[in-house]
Each structure stands twice: as structure tokens, then as C-alpha cells.
From TrEMBL:
Residues forming coiled coils: none
Annotated protein name in UniProt: PQQ-dependent sugar dehydrogenase
Region listing for Disordered, in residue ranges: 196-230, 734-809
Keywords: Disulfide bond, Signal
GO annotation (BP), single: carbohydrate metabolic process
Keyword Disulfide bond included in the entry's annotation: yes
InterPro entries (alphabetical): 6-blade_b-propeller_TolB-like, ConA-like_dom_sf, Glc/Sorbosone_DH, Ig-like_fold, LamG-like, PKD/Chitinase_dom, PKD_dom, PKD_dom_sf
Composition bias, Low complexity: 209-226, 767-781
The keyword Signal belongs to this UniProt entry's keyword annotation: yes
Record domain PKD: where: 461-545
Organism listed in the record: Solirubrobacter phytolaccae
């Protein structure tokens, strides 16, 4: 008798934004559901003997005998050990490379329900009570890497990874081409504030140095919280943590592989690490034919990253939490921690191979949403049934955006990110991507408890079912019709039906069939059609026999609101179709938190917090999270026939407004994950905990300012608690140096004009209206510009704070920044000429255009170029044009007849750049790629000058280059004023 363990799915963990929807694929591809009823599947592995292993977040691993098997058996049940709570669970699984030749081992990576230095197990039991509270003090656990024998016997290889908070926990497992086992993990820190170990009961519960558990850490010296991701760089004598890292270990012992770069170091954990400085490298893979690790790092609230680790002779640092994407992360920069400040000074952080901003499309113009983001899968397609263009292409997925993308291989063999395309829009909760033995792409659907298969049609027939009726009371006679099935080459089809749901296609062999269902329940009927070439297609139809139960939620109601820490009581019941009350044992409550985008509150993802099984009532404490977010409480009832009904109530929070100011105004300050020019206000959950910080030093209007203290908060721990209602203001005070008096003041010198580079075209104002005085523009705080991507990679053993590593640790090769295009001219408009109009600018003063006047330059012919400007348009129109060669307007850019649309907003400053590298027209808006279009060849020849005219508004900081800038260089120019 087969033993199957499945979990009732009410609301899956990290549920994506929408309910069931039709996936959108390129022409020639189809998606089918391969398996369902799997609870919350996290990993899919195909064994060489044809079996398929599917790991569930709860700790159950089920096995299918083959791709055609529809009923799995349970391989192992680790639920008593796995902490299946929020984003924790069994998240990694791998099969030994010699699985069928003497080593039938399954390796698992899971959140272990046991606190470090404690003998109590299980510690929490798939919950986290308040106190300590999941987002308050945190339910502290550890992690486990284990090897399972064929009979399920567990051998623990590593037990470590202290985790205080319920997200970015453990990650993936995979074997490299070298036969070694690679392991990834997240930082286990707070996702609500800048965490350096300052909270908990006791504080610093993981005992991160330089203090101990219970000792209040100092922000400047602490190595705790998210800074565990920088543990590889801890000074000698401080124990190294494994969080936020990728390990390379011996699969028999869990010890560091013998040729790891840090193998000679005294610290056993440092020896294991081959990459670090990551927030949550949830998934990684290897590029075929190489030992390169390609990892997806789930960001905080700004960037998702794809990181490439191409040289395992070094240990690379990817910068978290000091950097997110390529910019410094203001919330941690403002803490002035030694870990980050030394990294900023010495260098050594490796930029991501590719990063996408949460508010930007991955592919311009696509239907995939923005805002909420979490990169959740990577896979290189090695060839098979897909068209040849997909061979060696990189597929990656984002769970929150519910999309899968493909990036084609470039001439150098690496993924060419400029070729990225949307492959699957409206995908169903992808948290794992892999390739099956049939050449299809498979992904785990955490929301639906399913595994989906995306296949190239390859001229296979398409099966279609209609069932009449599809539901009703027993006995239920159903007529099935498969005549709408089609074959692309019009070949004759044969039919095979599985009508009783046993997985065998032996119930009928005609185009139409009928079946009578006599017992209440739910049955999945299947049709398989086969053409004369032997190609097949399948379809399914759910038949419901009987009336499902009715569910009532008495409390809470939809009008219930909450603040962080509030206790909310729930009461509910259910009746079957005969009106009898169902026992509480047939009820399951599920509590989830929906976290939505600040820019589009309809785009959300869901964190499943906790299930309450077998109870009719209970209570929970409202958790903390970033706003906008709300709770969803669902009650599911299952009757004796297995029919289910789920009812859900949405619970909206109460909120408060936090205003951050500086003295003087206009300096930078941080609130949560954002760093903005003050003053600014953000809405947060009532009574939520939020980190607040201020960078120091920083400059405003050329004057340096040093932080001196707060008025109104925060505490010494660096965070504040929002009020129960209304608003509150926090003011960061800064001081400027006292001017040094001089005995004889020197007369103010006349400003010296900026020297013009050789060959720089001279701007010629065409209109000559009388100059008018203008108001002084509001100064903008300045900082050192962020380094372009990729930043220079420096050895990880540079500087006093780092532990020297003996051979065979090799300093990495320095990666030079891309050559910069030649600057032909830069115009700041800060002078006061007699003719051209001036107005307050983005930096200093700006050129004012009234629709009739113009600004003209005469550059040489440019086959490749970059044109940049800050634009403040009050009426749309042309910004710059050079005959038929190029045009930049408020609706996009054009080279020749090739247009790349990108609209600019009115009545605010926007940085815009138009580049052409000989193959692609690109338009950047505020430092981010807004649109691109391929074209070939040089722009049309034009004897015209380059004219800036047409719009009504202002232009500032115009730059013209011979050559195309990189995206990072455009972003750097946006942050740097023309001087």
C-alpha cells in the first residue's frame, strides 16, 4: 500500500499577488500541471533511475516512480525537526551525483526547530508565540545540513546558522561539477529595521562578537544581525558565522573541501565559505561547462541581484548589508559600523552581474508587475526539446512578480542581459526552476501545491476536455468530450481516459466517454491524446461529487483593525451538506500577511505566518512588517467525503505617520530601508518598530555637516516605535564647522569658467533675450559618488580588520571598470551670460527654454554617442535634435528611424540619457533603463547642429559623449553635477 503525505493547502507561503490565472508563454510553448496536492513544494530533483523527489516546506519528501506516476510515496517525514513557520522550512535538497551507483543519498537543508546551545527540541513547534514574537524579539533557531540514506536515516553534517527572525533563512543545495556540495543561507536578520543584533530577549541572542548573548552591542563595533553576512571578515579570534554565505563542503563530512581558498585558516567556518556578503541567496546554479556559481540574492526593498562567482580560488564579498545592488545602503551606512566603513574605505565588494530595481520592469513594456520583488529561481537550459536558441540560456524567476525570464547566451558564452525576454508571465508561484529528463522546464508552485511543466510544442497534439456536469450530488453521471483536441499537423488522434482518478488511462478509448460517480468526493479525470507519430498531450478536469460544507467566521470581522502587538481572537464553525456541525478536528485556520508595493498597493506577495489545525477558536498577536501590508485569516473545513470550503477575512491595520527632518533641512536621513532628502514622511503600521539613521558627515551647498544628535528619537539602539495613531517627528541635528576669522578679508574672486576640453563644441545661444535675475536654487546634499559596476575587486585579506589567509588563498584578479566614452562637452549653465535665460536648476542654475529660443552646439559626426540632461518640462516636446540622425523628446529617443519610447513626467526634474552603441538605442530615465530598441549601423549623416529647443521648461547639466556609456556610468553621471 502506498503511503502518501500531503498537506492541506489554504494559503501557501510567500503567496504571489493573484489567484489562479492563465500563464502567458511565447508562441510554441505550453504549460501543464505535472503533479498537484503537494502542500508547499520547494525543490524538485530528477534521479537517474527515473524517480522524482519533491521536497515540501513542512519537512516531507515525496517520491514519484516516473514522470507518468500520479501517486507518490513518502520518502521521509522530518516535520518534527523542521521549523515550518513564516519563510522557514525545508528549503534545500540535492541528490548525490552517484545516486544510482553506490551512493543513494539525499541531502537536505532545513530550519531546525532548536535554539543554539539548547537541548530542547522541538523548541517552538511550527509557531512563534508572543512573547518573544516573530518580528519583535524573534524565535531563535538554528539550521541543519543532513545526509539521508535510502531508508531515511539522517546523518547530520552541519548544525549551525543561528537565525533570530523568520525570513531569509536557509537556501539551496547543489553539487558542483567538482563533486563537492555547495550550500547557501540567508542572514536570518530583521526585515523591518537595520539590524546589528540590538534586539531580542536577551539582546544579541546569537552571541555575535565582540560581545556575548545578553550584552547590548554597539552599532560601531557589532558583528551581529545582518552584519553576520560579513562574518568572513571578522578579526582573528572572533568566531565566523555561516549566514549570508555560500559554502563548499565535503559531502561525506560537512567539513570544508580540501582545496577551498581559506582551507589553512584556523576557523572551521571560514574554511567552508567561498562567497559571502549576501542577504538571502535563496537559489543558485552552475553555468554548464564551468565551475561558476550563479546565485539570486533576494534584496531588502530596492534591488534583486544575480551574482556570478567565477573564480573559486578566491572568496568573493558581495557587499550586503553595506551595499544593495551597487549603491551603498543608507540604513546601514548611517550606523557607521566598522564592518561597512572599512569595506567602503578598502574596497573589496563585488558588484552583481545583473540587478533590477523593485520599481522598474525587468523587460521594458512587459506585463510583469513591479514593486514587490523576490528572485526565486535560476537555471541554465542545457538543450533538449526547446529550440536551439535556448541552449545555454539562463532562466530566472521572481516569486513576487509571478514571472520567469530568459537571457540568451552572448558571444562570450555568458548570458547577454541585453537579450533578456519575458518567458512566462503570470506564472504560478515559482520558487524552483529545473530541467527534466524530457527537456521540459519544471517549476515548483508554492502557492498551489503543484509542479508545473513548460514544454515546447514540437508538433505534439493538444488535449482538451469538456465535462457535463462537473459537479453535483451522488450518483453523478458525467459526459466527457475530447473532440476539441487538436493536432498541429491534422494527424488522426487516439484517446485514452482515466475517469476514476487512479492514474491509469484504462477507462475509455473513444473521443467521448461517460462515467457515473457514486461516492461523494473530488476526482481528477484525465485525457491523453496521441497522434500517429507517437506524440501525446494531456488534459485534466476536476469533478466534484456532493455539496461542500458551509463555513462561518464569527470573529474577527472585516471591520476589525489592528496595531502591532494587538491580540486578535478568532472564532468559526462549519456545517456539512446535511446541516450537521463539523467537529473542530475538521477545521484549519491559516494566518498570512500580505506585503504590498508602496507604489502600487494592488501588487502584493504573502508570507504564510501560521496554521492552527483542529480548533474552532483561538487568538494570535498581530505581527510587525513594512507598510503597506495587511493580514488575511482563512478558515478551511473538510467534510467526511473530503470536500472542502475556505472562507477568508481581510484585516487592515491602523497606521501612523513618521516624519524625519534634519537641521538644517535638505540633508539625507534614513527610515527603514529608505534614505531620502529631508524632510519626508512615511506611513507605517501603528506601534511598529522602525530604524532611523543619519549619515555623517555629509555636505550641503558646499558646507560639511556632522551629525550631533536626535530630537524626538531614536533610542541608542537605532530604532523607534511608531505611535498608536497620528504622527510623530524625528529631527536629526547637524553642526557645521565654525569659520576661521582672518585679519584682512580677501575680496571675493570672480568665478573662473570651467576649462573647455580640446575640441569641445562651443554652445551658441540662438535667441538673445535680456538676462533676468533668478532665485538661488535649493542646494542638494552631496556625497562621494557610488562606484560604477563592476567595482574593483580587492583581496579579502586587505587591511587590519581582516584575518590574513595563508596559501593557497590567491588574491583575485582586479576587474577594471569599462572604458569610459570621450566627453565632448558638459554645460552646467551656472554662469550669467548677457543673452541666454537662466532659472533655478537641478544643480545651481539652468537654461530656461520658452518654446522659441534654443541652445545649439556643433559636434563632429558621431557613429556612437551618449546625450544626457536634467529636464524640467512644463509642456512636452523635443528636448534635442540633430536633423534625421537623432532626437530626444519627452516621449523617448530616436536614432534614424528607430525609436525607443520612454515618457518623461511634467513639472519635476528628471535625468534622461539617450545612448547608441552601434547596435541598440537605449533611453535611461533617472539612471535606469526605460526602453531599448535594436538597430544596426551608424546614424544617418547630418550636417545639422545639435539643437536643444522645443519644450517649455528648463535644462541643466547637459553632457555629450563620443561613445555609449554603460548603465552604471549613466547612473553615476546622474549623481554627479557638472562642475
Amino acid at each position: 500500500m502506498r503511503r502518501l503525505i500531503v498537506m492541506l493547502v489554504v494559503l501557501g507561503t510567500l503567496v504571489s499577488a493573484g489567484s489562479a490565472r492563465a500563464v502567458v508563454l511565447p508562441s510554441g510553448f505550453t504549460q501543464t500541471t505535472q503533479w498537484s496536492g503537494l502542500g508547499n513544494p520547494t525543490v524538485i530533483r530528477f534521479a537517474p533511475d527515473g524517480r522524482v523527489f519533491i521536497a515540501g516546506k513542512s519537512g516531507v519528501i515525496n517520491v514519484f516512480d516516473s514522470l507518468d506516476d500520479t501517486t507518490p510515496t513518502a520518502f521521509v517525514d522530518l516535520r518534527s525537526k523542521v521549523h515550518d513557520y513564516w519563510d522557514r522550512g525545508l528549503l534545500g535538497m540535492a541528490l548525490d551525483p552517484n545516486f544510482t551507483t553506490g551512493r543513494p543519498y539525499v541531502y537536505v537543508l532545513y530550519a531546525y526547530d532548536k535554539a543554539p546551545n539548547s537541548a530542547t527540541q522541538p523548541r517552538w513547534g511550527d509557531t512563534c508565540p508572543t512573547p518573544p514574537g516573530p518580528t519583535g524579539d524573534g524565535c531563535v533557531i538554528s539550521g541543519r545540513l543532513s545526509r539521508l540514506a535510502a531508508n531515511g536515516t539522517e546523518t547530520v553534517l552541519i548544525e549551525d546558522w543561528c537565525q533570530q527572525y523568520p525570513s531569509h533563512s536557509l537556501g539551496s543545495l547543489d553539487f558542483g561539477p567538482d563533486g563537492q556540495l555547495y550550500v547557501s543561507s540567508g542572514d536570518g536578520a530583521s526585515f523591518n529595521w537595520a539590524d546589528y543584533g540590538q534586539d531580542g530577549n536577551p539582546v544579541n541572542p546569537c552571541g555575535d562578537p565582540p560581545g556575548t548573548a545578553g550584552a547590548t552591542p554597539s552599532a560601531s563595533s557589532s558583528q551581529g544581525g545582518a552584519l553576520r553576512s560579513q562574518a568572513f571578515r571578522r578579526p582573528a579570534g572572533q568566531a565566523v558565522a555561516l549566514n549570508g554565505s555560500i559554502l563548499r563542503v565535503n559531502p561525506d563530512t560537512g567539513a570544508a573541501s580540501s582545496d577551498n581558498p581559506a582551507i589553512g585558516n584556523a576557523d572551521v567556518n571560514r574554511r567552508r565559505i567561498v562567497a559571502y556578503g549576501m542577504r538571502n541567496p535563496f537559489r543558485f546554479t552552475f553555468r554548464p561547462g564551468t565551475g561558476e556559481i550563479w546565485s539570486g540574492d533576494v534584496g531588502w526593498n530596492t534591488y534583486e541581484e544575480i551574482n556570478r562567482t567565477q573564480n573559486l580560488a578566491q572568496v568573493r564579498n558581495y557587499g550586503w548589508p553595506c551595499y544593495e545592488g551597487t549603491p551603498k545602503l543608507g540604513a546601514y551606512d548611517s550606523l557607521n559600523t566598522t564592518s561597512c566603513e572599512s569595506l567602503y574605505t578598502e574596497g573589496g565588494a563585488t558588484a552583481p552581474y545583473f540587478a533590477y530595481h523593485h520599481n522598474e520592469k525587468v523587460v521594458p513594456g512587459e506585463t510583469c508587475t513591479t514593486g514587490s520583488s523576490s528572485i526565486s529561481g535560476l537555471h541554465f537550459y542545457t538543450g533538449g526539446s526547446f529550440p536551439a536558441a535556448y541552449t545555454d540560456a539562463l532562466f530566472f524567476s521572481d516569486y513576487s512578480r509571478a514571472c520567469i525570464w530568459v537571457v540568451y547566451k552572448g558571444a562570450d558564452g555568458l548570458p547577454d542581459m541585453s537579450t533578456r525576454e519575458t518567458f512566462a508571465a503570470k506564472a504560478d508561484g515559482p520558487v524552483w526552476l529545473t530541467q527534466g529528463p524530457d527537456g521540459a522546464l519544471y517549476y515548483a508552485d508554492l502557492l498551489g501545491g503543484k509542479v508545473h511543466r513548460i514544454a515546447a510544442d514540437n508538433n505534439a497534439p493538444t488535449a482538451r476536455i469538456t465535462a457535463t456536469p462537473s459537479e453535483g450530488v451522488a450518483p453523478l453521471s458525467v459526459t466527457f468530450d475530447g473532440t476539441k483536441s487538436t493536432d498541429p499537423e491534422s494527424r488522426p488522434l487516439t484517446y485514452a481516459w482515466d475517469l476514476d482518478g487512479d492514474g491509469a488511462y484504462d477507462d475509455a478509448a473513444t473521443a467521448r466517454a461517460s462515467y457515473t460517480y457514486r461516492s461523494p468526493g473530488s476526482v481528477t479525470a484525465r485525457l491523453r491524446v496521441t497522434d500517429t507519430a507517437g506524440l501525446s498531450g494531456t488534459a485534466t478536469q476536476t469533478i466534484t461529487i456532493g455539496a461542500p460544507p458551509t463555513v462561518t467566521i464569527s470573529a474577527p470581522t472585516a471591520t476589525t483593525t489592528w496595531a502591532v502587538g494587538d491580540t486578535i481572537t478568532f472564532i468559526g464553525s462549519a456545517r456539512n451538506s446535511a446541516g450537521a456541525t463539523l467537529a473542530a478536528s475538521r477545521l484549519t485556520w491559516s494566518l498570512s500577511l500580505r506585503h504590498c508595493s508602496r507604489t502600487d498597493a494592488t501588487v502584493c506577495h504573502t508570507h504564510a505566518i501560521q496554521d492552527y489545525a483542529g480548533v474552532g477558536s483561538g487568538s494570535f498577536v498581530a505581527p510587525d512588517h513594512e507598510y503597506p501590508s495587511h493580514l488575511e485569516l482563512s478558515l478551511t473545513a473538510v467534510d467526511a467525503a473530503g470536500l472542502t470550503t475556505t472562507r477568508t477575512v481581510r484585516l487592515d491595520p491602523r497606521t501612523a505617520d513618521l516624519t524625519v527632518r534634519t537641521e538644517p533641512a535638505g540633508l539625507l536621513a534614513s527610515l527603514g530601508s529608505e534614505t531620502l532628502v529631508t524632510p519626508f514622511t512615511r506611513t507605517v503600521l501603528a506601534k511598529s518598530q522602525n530604524s532611523v539613521g543619519a549619515r555623517s558627515p555629509q555636505s550641503l551647498g558646499g558646507v560639511p555637516y556632522t551629525f550631533s544628535g536626535w530630537t524626538g528619537g531614536p533610542s541608542s539602539a537605532g530604532w523607534v516605535v511608531a505611535p498608536a495613531s497620528g504622527g510623530v517627528t524625528y529631527t536629526a541635528r547637524f553642526t557645521a564647522p565654525t569659520p576661521t576669522p582672518t585679519a584682512t578679508p580677501t575680496p571675493t574672486a570672480t568665478r573662473t569658467p570651467t576649462p573647455t576640453p580640446t575640441g569641445t563644441p562651443t554652445p551658441t545661444p540662438t535667441a538673445t533675450p535680456t538676462a533676468t535675475p533668478t532665485d538661488t536654487a535649493t542646494p542638494v546634499p552631496t556625497e562621494t559618488p557610488e562606484p560604477p559596476a563592476p567595482p574593483v575587486v580587492l583581496p579579502d585579506d586587505v587591511g587590519p580588520p581582516l584575518t590574513p589567509l595563508p596559501p593557497p588563498f590567491e588574491p583575485p584578479v582586479v576587474l577594471p571598470a569599462p572604458a569610459r566614452a570621450t566627453l565632448l562637452g558638459a554645460w552646467a549653465f551656472d554662469d550669467r551670460p548677457a543673452g541666454a535665460k537662466r532659472a533655478p536648476g537641478r544643480h545651481g542654475r539652468a537654461l530656461r527654454l520658452d518654446g522659441r529660443n534654443r541652445f545649439v552646439v556643433r559636434p563632429p559626426r558621431l557613429d556612437t554617442f551618449t546625450l544626457e540632461a536634467w529636464v524640467y518640462a512644463t509642456r512636452p516636446g523635443t528636448i534635442a535634435q540633430r536633423g534625421s540622425a537623432l532626437r530626444l523628446s519627452t516621449s523617448g529617443g530616436r536614432v534614424g528611424t528607430t525609436s525607443a519610447p520612454a515618457s518623461l513626467p511634467r513639472n519635476r526634474w528628471t535625468h534622461v540619457a539617450l545612448t547608441y552603441d552601434g547596435t541598440t538605442v537605449r533611453v535611461y530615465r533617472d539612471g535606469k533603463l526605460a526602453s531599448s530598441k535594436r538597430r544596426a549601423g551608424a546614424p544617418p549623416r547630418s550636417a545639422s547642429e545639435l539643437r536643444f529647443s522645443g519644450i517649455i521648461g528648463r535644462l541643466d547639466d547637459i553632457r555629450l559623449y563620443a561613445g555609449a556609456l554603460t548603465p552604471a556610468q549613466v547612473a553615476t553621471d546622474r549623481k554627479t553635477a557638472v562642475r
